[in-house]
Amino acid sequence: MSSGRGGVSLPDIRGSGSSSSEGILTRVTSSINNSPIVYKGKQAAGDVAFVANKLLRSTGKAAWIAGTTFLILFVPLIIEMDREAQLTELEMQQASLLGAPPSTLK
Predict the structure, then answer these.
(1) Is the pLDDT of residue 30 over 70?
(2) CB within 8 A of 88, min separation 6: which ones?
(3) Residue 79 falls inside a structural domain
(4) How far apart are CA 90 and CA 82, in angstroms?
């Protein structure tokens, strides 16, 4: 800027150092972000996240189906088998107390 009385004109120094370095950083960052390798990396990361999300959801659904099927079908069967084993054991104890020869169950 000139001083108005004539003299030497000096460049405006306010922020010139930071703007040139920001300009360089902005240009380098912009060129890195726009490179095809970064673009393909971001696209691959997005694809991996999408597949992982779908896999997690389908795994959760499969676990829910397997868990409820187990509860409905197999837990009552296990309880009934345990009752049968207890009843058989009780009959064997009663038979041994009464003096009857122990029978082998098939």
Answers:
(1) yes
(2) 105
(3) yes
(4) 12
